[in-house]
Description:
Elements: E1 14-18, E2 26-32, E3 35-44, E4 58-65, H1 83-97, H2 102-105, E5 109-118, H3 123-144, E6 157-165, E7 168-171, H4 175-180, E8 183-190, E9 195-202, H5 209-231
Parallel strand pairs: 4-5
Antiparallel strand pairs: 1-2, 2-3, 3-5, 6-7, 6-8, 8-9
Helix pairs in contact: 1-3, 3-5
Amino acid sequence: MSRKDRKQDQIRPLSISTNVNAYAEGSAMISMGNTKVLCTASIESKVPPWLEGKGKGWVTAEYSMLPRATHTRSRRDREKISGRTQEIQRLIARSLRACVNLSALGEVMITVDCDVLQADGGTRTASINGGCVALKCAIDGLIAQGKCSKEAWVQSVSAVSIGRRGGEMLVDLDYEEDSSCDVDMNFVVTSRSEFVEIQGTAEKECFNKGNLTEMIDAALTTCSAILEIQKSRV
C-alpha cells in the first residue's frame, strides 16, 4: 500500500503468523507492507561465559538480509558482518531484553534470528515487532514446561519508524519515504509506554522540539496499535 492509499499517521498492512518453523522454540513471520521478516527464537542450555553460575539467562539477536531481499542482489555476510548489520542486531537484542526478567529466566540463552526475506523499509522495526512475538512463544513454552518462572516475561515491545518530509510527518516509512525524508527516527516502546530506544537523525533539515513532540506522540499511538496486534497472536 503506497502512501497515497493511506493516511500520514497510518501504518502499512501488518500481519504476523506464529509457529511457522517446525523446529524453533518460537517463530513468527511478520509482514509490514512489502517488508517481510522471518523471526525464530532458539533456546540453548548455556549462557555467555561472563554469566555462568550467576543464575541469570540472556537474550541476544542476529539479523541478516537475504541476497535478493532488495531490488538487486547483495552479497552474503560470510567472513565479516557489516557495521550496519552489527548496529541493527544490537538494537534488536537491546529491545528484546527489555521484555524479559533475566533472573527469572534461568541459565539459558535465547537467540532471536531475524532474516529479512523482502525489504521495503523498516526492516529493523519489523524485526523487533516479529522478534518480540517469537520470543514470547519461546518463553511461554519454557513456562508451560515448568522450566522457568512466570515472572520471566515482563512486557512486550513494539517499534516504528517516523519521518518528516516537506513539513509533513509520516508514520511507518517504506523505502522510498525513508530515502527521501528530511528527518528519520526509529522508536522502540514497551507495553508500559516507556521508551527502550529512540534513534533520530536530521537527514536534510533540522527539527525542533515541537516536531520531536509530534513524532513521539505518533510513535506512542502507533506502537500501542502494533502491540494489540502482537498480543492477538500469542
